[in-house]
Amino acid sequence: MKAPSFAEPTERSYERVISMDAQAEPKVVLVDDDNDVRAITADILEEAGFDVLQAARAEAALDILATNRDVKVLITDVRMPGPMNGYDLALKARERWPSLEIMFVSGFGLPERHQLYFDCLLVSKPFDPDYLVSQVRGLAERAA
Fold first, then answer.
1. Which of 50, 63, 67 is nearest to 103 (CA)?
2. Which CATH architecture has domain 26-143?
């Protein structure tokens, strides 16, 4: 039996490519005005296989969402400078993209669920990286 070479793909190598594609994580938009927090959070999600698009302001996040129709999850800080905070961003995003799943993260406390106008996930900072990844995966599966 001849050993396969790099020039001769085997059935097994073909199956491996297919299975890696099937497990590709969806795109998420991460919005936080704190550059360090955003960079660390993006690293956590990227190491878990997510395609992370980052924004420092709500307005930039809306632009990203408008040009990336395949985003499944919006992760946004609550308090941000500018004319829109995280709640304003989420309301506008949900209005334009109803199937978009939303996660709020905040180090300053979160609202009671009954104060929100739509279903979303609320996560307090600091968060456990494994918890964050599992919650984002759950939201992405729900959006699919």
1. 50
2. 3-Layer(aba) Sandwich (3.40)
Measure the CA angle with vertex 102, ends 93 and 72; round to 5°: 80
pLDDT of residue 123: 85
DSSP 26: P
Report residue 19 as tokens: 């299975």
- CA-based nearest residue to 99, from 121, 71, 75, 77: 71
**CA distance linking residue 125 with residue 38, whole number of Å:** 12
Per DSSP, the residues of 83-135 read S--HHHHHHHHHHH-TT-EEEEEESS----GGGSSS--EEEESS--HHHHHHH
Q: What is the spatial distance between Cα 132 and Cα 144, in angstroms, rounded to a whole number?
A: 18
> What pLDDT digit, counting tens, does each position of 97-129 carry?
999 999 999 877 655 544 455 577 788 888 899
* Residue 37 predicted with pLDDT over 60: yes
